[in-house]
Amino acid sequence: MKLFAFSFVSAHLFVGLVSASSNHSSSNVPSLVDPRTRYQHRVILPDQGFPGLHQNWNPPIDSGEKSYVGTGRLKGRKALITGGDSGIGRAVAIAYAREGADVTINYLPEEQPDADEVKTLVEAEGVRYFAMPGDLRNETFCTSLVHQAREAMGGLDILVSNAGYFVQNLNISTITTEQILQTFEVNVFASFYLVRAAAPLLPPGSSIIFTSSGMARRPHGAAVDYAATKAALISMAQTLGLQLGPQGIRVNAIAPGLTATNFLTSHGLTTENADTIAAQLPLGRIAQPAELAPIYVMIAEGSSSQSIASAYGVNGGNLSF
Fold first, then answer.
1. 65-114 pLDDT, tens per residue?
2. Signal sequence: where (predicted)?
3. DSSP code of residue 268
4. Mind telling me the catalytic residues?
5. CATH class held by domain 6-314
């Protein structure tokens, strides 16, 4: 049985807030944004299992479909994004496309309906889109994914290891070996496999970004294995940043807070739980994926040449990073 004491751990959950800005005609975000009122405080979570679908949310999640605007900051770049069909990964894919990058996304086969939506959104920007579904727990697939993405796009210079897995459990006695293995395989081993395959192929100026979590530094008792994996990603970003920096390859991690994605619904969070948590956050609400996309753009672009071996918190004021 999955269990999570949302009321007492709410102080340890986080929101991410970064606002997009530019002059794209589809923008509905003015230049001066009050973060308290940019989105409604209440988020209605659908009742769905793992992995869930982005299109099941009503009202919809904002992954930047209409709100993100671009100015060509990644023109000509070529990005591979895992978990790119929904939530944060979807927001990154949309943002990268609107900044001018070709995009390849990875996702689970059962998430194909969401991936089809991303295809439409990305190709509408006049860049190339490639879909490569598959299970990141498979080492051979991870290696193949990197090589196939590079071949399809004619290069690779941005790798966003974003896909994640989390099963909540407050009792270590009932955490199975299978759960621990899957959590580490998806969150840590896959990132290692992807970077190991990509590093020899990436040209100087490339960027590798891990999606970590605020729980890497402020965990709670229901996330023993998950928090450990997210802390491992921070360490990997730091050590790989030092190792690959001399080759001109920058490695960093982003640590989002609590964000409206399928990641929540597939593990039992309810609308009422989210209300309780949101009420205790500085902005009175959890984050929308579109609010995280700008920092993924900033770290990937060439002007962020001193962003190496660092972890960036996007947590709405929780101060975990």
1. 999 999 999 999 999 999 999 999 999 999 999 999 999 999 999 999 99
2. 1-20
3. T
4. 226
5. alpha beta
